[in-house]
Every structure is written in structure tokens, then in C-alpha cells.
């Protein structure tokens, strides 16, 4: 069954990228498509593991000289030579094994709320979005000759797959934003004065949420940025691990724009056609480990309401992000033996690149 199905896999997937399976026959085809994707998982997993190992070796460096390689270097010949396989066809299919396809290839990523903290104006085009925010290994300073380089301790490796072609999507803009270590978004430090004493919603779909904090600091841009995918369909960012706030699981927001307008005078952009709105998450185990590190220990709700676990995420956002079999949780890899030495986080979105959504926040308290 698998060889014949894989031969028509991209065509069938394109047909199902635009509709939800409803009849028993459609559901069976969709199930078979997912099985076919998992059929290729060992090769994809080996390839991803080799990228992780190569990155960790270079990032940690030798003799205390860390180094951050570019994405092209992760695909260098010496990286792939370490993977066994006939003819080194790393993305060919092999017998089914008990593993996961880490990049969710060709699975349509669900559309979920953008929340109230997106800025339509002033989002910078850049890869290092941390600015001066402290967090999980924000930066390490390395003196190289007469120049001073900043070596980040957290890398976000975000891939984009076009579900209509089942191929990487180069030259699209991936926009992300996240809360800092104490749970605040740049530009939104405090609640509105008349809501200073507001208590979180008790029960219901919005359990734990507060009203959105207004934007009062228009100059702040920390932990916001967008970057164009390279020829491999990947955008990389350096950041800190996000903090949490009441009612929401730890998450990172994202949008994908096939079209946008750059403003060279200030390094920002104006959004154009919007192809995807989503959120990424982390496993609760790593969330709990990061909670024990400074400055995450200074989160003002740490000893009162505490962290919201993934399964209790308000508005069912974590649950909704799993629609169609997609996995919205980053695959993380430690740079060293413990979390405090740095983290690389990998994920791939399956996006319908011909889509155009009017998925902009229009009020309310979704976050």
C-alpha cells in the first residue's frame, strides 16, 4: 500500500489541504496520508538529528570559543556524511519504525488567534529579537580580534512547508512575538488604570484570563521580529525562552506573509497578504525547568496563580493547535548537558501559501 500511496502523496495532499475530511472515505484517505508521512519519519529524523548535532558542536565550540553557524552550514557535506543510508537519499522512505516526524511535513497547520498584542506597525525585520531582555542564556560575549560578537544561547529554527506542493517555501516572511521572562509583551507593561485590580476569569473557556493590557510604550520592540525564509524554507531567530502570564500556556505567536512591504529607513515592514496565523508551544517538562531559573523566578504570579499547564490553556488554543494531526510543540535540543547551557528549538509549519486570511485581532481578550 505505501509505495503506491507515496507516489500520489503530494497530489492527494493538495486536494485535502483546503477541506476537512467528513465522509468515511475521505477520513480513510487522510489517515493513509498521515501513515505515509510517518513511513518517511526515520530518514527525516536522522537528518534532523544530524543538523542538531552539528549545530551543538559548532555553537559550543572549542576552548571556550562558541560559534553560531549559518543555516547553510547545517546542510554542509560533512554534516550529511554522518548519516547512513543507501545513496544517502535522506528523505526517501524506509520501513516504518516507532519514531516521530519532527517537522510535521505536509500537515496543514491550524489557524488560531493572533491575540491582542500584535503590532501592525513597527515590527522590525531582524533575527536577534532579544534586545536587552534577560532570560535563558540571553547572550554570551565573545571577544574576537577587535570586534565583539554576541553569541545567543537560544535558537528558534522555524521551517515553512507549502502543503500544496509538499515542498519548502522560500522567500516568505515569518513574523514572531512573545512575552518576556516575567510575562509581559513589549509595549504593554501594565493594565489599564480602571482594570488595575481586575481578577482573572473563573471557569469557562476564558478561565484564568485578564483583559488585554493596552499599548502604552510605543517605542518598545523587544521579543518581536520577522525574517525571510531561506532557500531551504527556514527562518532562524535568536531569542530568550518566553515567560508566562495568567491563563495561558507558554507560547510563541507567529504569522506568515508571502507578501509584505519593507521600510528601509527604519528596518520595519508593513504586512501584506496573510497566509497563516498560529502559536507554538513547549513541552511542560522544559517549561518547569526554566521556571527555576532567574529571572523567570521573578514572575509576579509565580507564587499566586502560577503557570498554566498546556492541557489547561485558556480558549482551548493549545488543543485547537493540534487540529488535523499537526503538532504545535517545539522539538528542543540542549546545547549542553543541562537547560541553562542553551536550547535549540525546531518546528515546521505546513502552510497553504495561496491562502489569504482576514485573521486580524478585532477586539476581545484573546491572547
UniProtKB/TrEMBL annotation:
Record's protein name: Aromatic compound dioxygenase
Residues spanning the signal sequence: 1-21
Keyword Signal: yes
Keyword Signal appears in the UniProt entry: yes
Source organism (scientific name): Mycena venus
Gene3D superfamilies in the cross-refs: Aromatic compound dioxygenase
UniProt keyword terms in alphabetical order: Signal
GO molecular function list: iron ion binding; oxidoreductase activity, acting on single donors with incorporation of molecular oxygen, incorporation of two atoms of oxygen
InterPro entries (UniProt xref): Intradiol_dOase_core (IPR015889)
Amino acid at each position: 500500500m505505501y509505495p503506491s500511496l507515496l507516489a500520489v502523496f503530494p497530489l492527494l495532499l493538495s486536494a485535502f489541504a483546503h477541506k476537512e475530511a467528513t465522509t468515511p472515505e475521505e477520513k480513510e484517505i487522510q489517515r493513509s496520508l498521515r501513515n505515509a508521512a510517518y513511513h518517511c519519519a526515520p530518514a527525516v529524523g536522522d537528518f534532523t538529528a544530524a543538523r542538531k548535532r552539528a549545530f551543538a558542536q559548532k555553537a559550543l565550540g572549542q576552548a571556550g570559543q562558541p560559534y553560531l553557524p549559518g543555516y547553510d552550514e547545517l546542510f554542509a557535506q560533512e554534516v550529511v556524511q554522518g548519516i547512513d543510508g543507501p545513496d544517502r537519499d535522506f528523505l526517501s522512505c524506509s520501513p516504518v519504525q516507532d519514531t516521530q516526524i519532527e517537522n510535521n511535513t505536509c500537515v496543514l497547520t491550524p489557524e488560531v488567534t493572533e491575540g491582542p498584542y500584535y503590532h501592525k506597525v513597527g515590527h522590525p525585520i531582524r533575527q536577534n529579537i532579544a534586545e536587552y531582555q534577560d532570560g535563558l542564556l540571553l547572550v554570551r560575549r565573545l571577544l574576537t580580534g577587535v570586534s565583539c560578537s554576541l553569541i545567543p544561547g537560544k535558537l528558534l529554527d522555524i521551517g515553512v512547508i507549502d502543503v500544496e506542493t509538499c515542498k519548502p517555501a522560500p522567500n516568505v516572511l515569518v513574523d514572531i512575538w512573545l512575552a518576556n521572562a516575567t510575562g509581559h509583551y513589549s509595549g504593554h507593561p501594565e493594565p489599564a488604570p480602571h482594570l488595575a485590580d481586575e481578577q482573572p476569569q473563573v471557569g469557562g473557556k476564558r478561565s484564568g484570563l485578564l483583559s488585554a493590557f493596552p499599548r502604552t510604550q510605543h517605542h518598545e520592540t523587544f521579543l518581536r521580529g520577522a525574517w525571510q525564509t531561506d532557500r531551504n524554507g527556514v527562518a532562524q531567530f535568536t531569542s530568550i525562552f518566553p515567560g508566562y502570564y495568567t491563563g495561558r500556556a507558554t507560547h510563541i505567536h507567529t504569522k506568515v506573509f508571502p507578501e509584505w512591504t519593507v521600510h528601509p529607513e527604519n528596518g520595519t515592514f508593513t504586512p501584506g497578504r496573510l497566509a497563516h496565523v498560529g502559536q507554538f508551544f513547549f513541552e511542560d517538562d522544559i517549561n518547569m525547568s526554566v521556571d527555576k531559573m532567574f529571572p523567570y523566578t521573578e514572575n509576579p504570579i509565580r507564587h499566586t496563580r502560577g503557570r498554566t499547564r498546556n492541557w489547561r490553556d485558556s480558549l482551548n488554543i493549545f488543543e485547537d493547535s493540534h487540529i488535523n494531526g499537526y503538532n504545535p510543540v517545539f522539538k528542543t535540543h540542549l546545547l549542553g548537558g543541562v537547560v541553562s547551557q542553551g536550547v535549540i528549538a525546531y518546528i515546521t509549519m505546513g502552510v497553504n501559501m495561496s491562502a489569504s486570511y482576514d485573521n486580524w485581532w478585532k477586539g476581545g481578550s484573546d491572547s
